[in-house]
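User: I'm putting together a teaching handout on how multi-component assemblies are represented. Below are the sequence lines for each component of a complex, exactly as they appear in our records. Could you produce the 3D structure of the whole assembly as structure tokens, so the students can see both representations side by side? Please keep the chain order the same as the input.
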Amino acid sequence: MTSKYDAIIVGGGHNGLVCAAYLAKAGRKVLVLEKRHILGGAACSEEVYPGFTYSVCSYVVSLLRPQIIRDLQLPRFGLHVLPLESTFSPYPDGRSLMRSADPAATRREIASFSARDADVYPIFGKAMGQLARFTKPVIDERAPDPMSWRPRELMQLLRMGKQFRDLGDDLGLLQYKLTTMSAVDFLAEWFETDELIAPMSCSGIIGTMLGVKSPGTAYVLLHHYMGEIDGSSRAWGFARGGTGAISMAIARSAEHFGAEIRTNAGVAQIKVRSGAAQGVVLEDGTELDAKVVISGAEPRLTFLKLVGESELPTEFVTQLKRYKLRGSSGKVNLALDRFPDFASRPGIGMHVRGDISIAPNTDYLERAYDDAKYGDFSKRPFMNIVFPSVMDPDMAPEGKHVMSIFVQYAPYHLKEGPAHWPEKREAFGDAVVDTLAEYCPTLKDSILHRQVLTPWDLEQEFGLTEGNIFHGELSLDQLLFQRPTSGWAQYKTPIRKLWLCGSGAHPGGGVMGAPGQLAAKEILLGGAC
Amino acid sequence: MGTALVIGGGPNGIACALTLAERGHAVTLVEARSELGGRTHVLADTRTVQPWAVRSLGLPLEWSASPEWIGADDSGVRASIEGLPSVVAWRKEVERFGGLIRTLSARAAPNIRSDAAWTSLVGPAVQALKLGRANGLELARVGPLCAEDWLDEWSVPRDAQATLVAPALTGTWMGPKSPTSALAVLFYAALSGRSIAGGMSALHGALIERLEGTAVSVRKGAAVTRIDIADGRVTGVTLADGTNVMADVVVSTVGPKATLLGLVPPRDLPVGMDQTVQNIRTRGIIAVFRATVTSPFFGGAERVVLAEDTVAVERAFDDAKHRRMPVRPTLVVHQDRGELVVHVHGAARDLDAGWSVDTAEALRATVVEALAAHGDAGALASGTLLTPADLEREYGLEGGHLFHGEFAIDQFLSFRPHPSLTQYRTAIEGLVLGGAGMHPAGGFTLAQGILAAQSV
Amino acid sequence: MRTTPFHPRTSELCTSFAWKEWAGYAAVCHYTPHSEAEVFAVRSTAGLLDVTPLYKYDVSGPDAGAFLAHVWTRDIRAIGVGRVVYSAMCDEDGWMLDDGTVARLGPDHFRCTSSEPWLGWFIRHSRGFDVEITETTDTICGLALQGPRARAILKGITEFDMDRMRFFRVRKTVVGGVPAWVQRTGYTGDLGYEVFCENKHALALYDALTEAGRPHGMVPMGLDALDVARIEAGFVLQGVDYVTAKNCLIDGLKSTPDDAGLGWTVDLDRGPFVGSEAIKAERSRGPVWDLVGLDVDWEAMEEMYARLGIPPHLAPEACRLPVPVYDRDGAQVGQATSTTWSPTCKQYLALAQVRRPHHLQGTELFIEHTPVFERLKLPATVVDKPFFDPERKRSTPGAPPPAPPPPSEAEE
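Assistant: Of course. Below is the structure of the complete assembly, with chains in the same order as your input.
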């Protein structure tokens, strides 16, 4: 059976759904095809253990674009984002640090480590806020081609150049340093306390195969200051019902606008004839045609697996092959019989209503990275933890809790080879729980169920090539006009009528929705469908 | 023309003094040590010395084909890598950008601050346009890469990579797996050409000889303790013995950090500048081992990198990063007529255990043991090792860093050492910075002293 | 939120439950349901205010004076031991960071107070100065005793003869059996003192002052009454009348000392200090703004309300929302940042930042006023500050016949 759609979207992750919703809203006939039984891709919620809902992979809402929330009327379709109230860092020596939206309280917390840093902290925040205002348009617009003479590109470049100029010398330099320096070096220009630098720096390494002392990792610090949710600096939030609730809200919105969504419908092949996409072939052999095919899947998978090398220019294949994926993180979800108190700050206070970083010092983080560099998972990993059930009691039975643990590093490329992950999975889970037990002594006794996701699992289950949660390393050489490859960074591809709308396109990963939205915009602008 | 005083009798100090004298200044050169030469005693690699700099100083030096870098490991010296098709292809790739890098390194870096005349940016813009779209995009892609990834793309074997990468990382705080290390490797490769015949000692000799033929007044054993400033203007310097030397212009070649934080009285420094200077990163991770040997090591190979592969180089960097005693440091060896100069990569200035007679001896023993397999071990007994702490103390190298400041993407070109200082002049009238901490970075070029003198 | 060491007493007295946050501490707005009685107490008897949340820094060492002169706009080196000065602090670009007092407790020992935390800033600028900087915000607590009876109250319980303590002087002495620093300063523009002691003595000090104050009609006083009193006294408040440059994202929100009406605190005739170059440059260009006092025409206001058929009514607290100020042609020339009904002067008063030359005394301006929904304008005149300046503020009954004051006399 063949039916004609304006657009077929490969992959029902949040970006695919955003793209579908925008196209449907513009009156196009859209079909979304998702391989799994539920929508959301890596942004999904599942009841893996009876009564306990896990945000299986992605666990916080970082920079979900507010215009998407407005345009797609997501609150109407069930999206409720609760701000993460604090960032908490326990230390092995029994001390701890909580940074929250209360400046006076945060000041006192930091002052117990360094009074100087306590004073510098809000000044740093202000400078970051100013840079965030400069950077925001960069993620809200498609990336201009810096080496092009086309008027549209030139205009956009000039505008960005002027905005950069308007920052002035000092902020301009700060922006450059932020983009190029390592997170630790950048923070060390401001702060003297390693206990503060370490948890701040680790936002720069999430999802990347880099250490906090690797150049280029400072940039993501800015994301914390983009201040979208509630207009406050608490840019990170948690979706009621788990991250899957975001995808579900977008899906409902897309359907409301007329999009058709199918699950259990994996795409086996993107049909290409004389350099143009015609449609897709499903795993069950069904062929579907459309004016355009838009892939929310990771670029290398899209082209090398679904399209096929023979259809592609050699140069492009070379670029794709050197596109760095290198998944570096894993996820451990725990169902808990009772709340595991932190020895340094027991109880269910504000400190557990935000994200919790196990990042006691920068050497610790670098050692965790060193393990991964040589092909092993971190024996004592960096962890970012949230307790969804504390913020949303519906996530677990009464009095019980779910604990979402993002773990780094778990390199896809083990020295024995990635296929050895299944046999190492439980050892990896043990390393996580053992490390955590140093901070939460009662944790081990309260675990009812443990789900361990290695990068291998992320690849097998969610189509995240090499387990990279961002569909490609967020490194300087793979950002902006180089994402995914230079020359093809504006959602278009060398295959006519085939577009990209996933995290492998500008501006990249995280539950932002921006690639989906910008791709839809470009597709509509060009009148492709 | 007024009086000029140059602080530091190292290669850049001498080059600066010569250039100033040439331009008609009455020049005094002061050196804290009892002999001139500074870093020429601890560096050996002359292939990055820029021919235009040698010409400009009128040094009667001969150039010889550079001895190539040879890899070695415990099993012995490996075959040359220069014949490998992958290395040949990669070297060709480097030349796509080589011209631009050499041009930029032969002049002051563009002032990118808002006080610059826009016309000053035309030259660099033209250079960038000359590069063309494909090369420009490729440079933007390659710069941020780690050296290993870049060389992997060209299928250079990992052991050959170590040989290419280690000498290039001398002035950095990076390993081959650090992002942007490709930029350091690119710059080093682009700036490298032929070597000076007779090596560093020939260069040293030529500089001294040239100096003797001029009116430059040289004061050795004269440590500057303070740069004297009145009303925001340099008036001269005060020496350790308490004497004042008056000068209209003071060029300091001892490093931006050592100069502005160590020699300028804190209250004479413009408000806020101390922060700027404090942030210049100068983390030395190299110790220098020297020995006189009677029979050649490494079968006579003159330039040897003793490291199995990039992982070994990275692990040595890990030791430096974690401030540990290096277990298997990467050794970058120069051998010239019985003189071994070995750069020991992986020795952090701020070693957790601290540098003492014991720790220095432990590292020396490690180096001697690693070298012993490649020559007459007995000859190494008299070898001496300078830890980064020794380098800091004896040669005034801030942080024990051989180049007064790390090569990093935020500390090169117009960012070296900071956009407000990149034109060699400082906010203090009459105070000029020369020396390795300034542009150009990427190797020992001999350019900074001349460019600083030209900016006076 | 944190509580000050006086909390056990103040929380018992605060029957209104009106608290607000002040620098991370809980502070009383008004003790009884209305603040008016507290304002009257300051002008007729005395009010006792907990000022612990002020940021406090002890600076000591051979270069302490030189260092403080480097970061504050006044030449702190020039003040004698036992004196206090009021000063401004600027950033490198000459923008106001804060204002506060600096007391010279000993030859090499100073204490400054400020509204914002500056330890990091001080440390950053202390390179090359042989000083030790200690934040004492959380270890030293303070009470302001303000009003005409303040001297009489302290007299009975203080070792030092209060009749001899002159305006803007500080003295280490014993108050109510407690070692304390007494300084004749305050934020009300009346006779008054600020008493600081170590936290452990807090309750003893509070009880002694309460006991001594009872026969004099002293009342506990909250921040609302202070706000009215400080406007009457013409004192600016950081965060209201000007905003510290540290918290401003754009230059348009920042103020220079001249803009904030604090140009008189700037001693330029000395070596460079933080911000001096920028202030010099501004002076040579001519400052743009000034902070002035406005006397709003009460008759016009009565007429305005009469037209609406209601009696004139103003809130008992000061208003901190900026209100536009216009010239005769209706162009906005500035904004009133603090406005209040003055129970003491029986006037409607405002502090306003206006463009020069509208700052000149006697200039007729208009201030926006919203009696009921509609935004109207009231005539107002630029007048001299302070609005209320009693002679008792600076007079000292027991002072020896005044020797000619030293030229560096650093008074208010």
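A couple of points students might notice: Chain A touches chain B through 33 residues (CB under 8 Å). Residues 228-234 of chain A have pLDDT under 50 and may be disordered.
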